[in-house]
Design goal:
The chain has 2 domains: about 30 residues; about 50 residues, no CATH class. The protein is elongated. Helices cover about 70% and strands about 0% of the residues. About 5% of the residues are buried. Helix 3 packs across helix 4. The longest helix has 30 residues. The chain is mostly helical.
């Protein structure tokens, strides 16, 4: 009897986790993140990329110049890459 109750509890938990994950995915798709809108920073990124700098170098340059991301944090190579891919 104890094993059956344990199996039911495991199944119930896995169903709850699946429901919560699906709800989070729906919510993220609905809201999404707004694209980075600072045209000056985007132009600077494009200019640095055209001068042959790689993404880590661009991120370092933007951070030393004091440019912040949309959330106010520092730039990382992956965020530079994603921003340039979206424009």
């Amino acid at each position: 009897m104890r094993q059956i109750m344990g199996a039911i509890a495991e199944w119930d938990k896995s169903m709850l986790v699946a429901k919560l994950q699906a709800a989070r995915r729906r919510s993220q798709r609905k809201q999404g993140r707004k694209p980075f809108a600072d045209k000056g920073v985007i132009a600077r990124m494009k200019d640095l990329r055209e001068h042959g700098l790689n993404y880590p170098a661009i991120a370092n340059k933007l951070n030393t110049e004091g440019h912040k991301t949309q959330t106010g944090s520092k730039w990382f190579p992956a965020s530079v890459s994603r921003t340039l891919a979206r424009v």
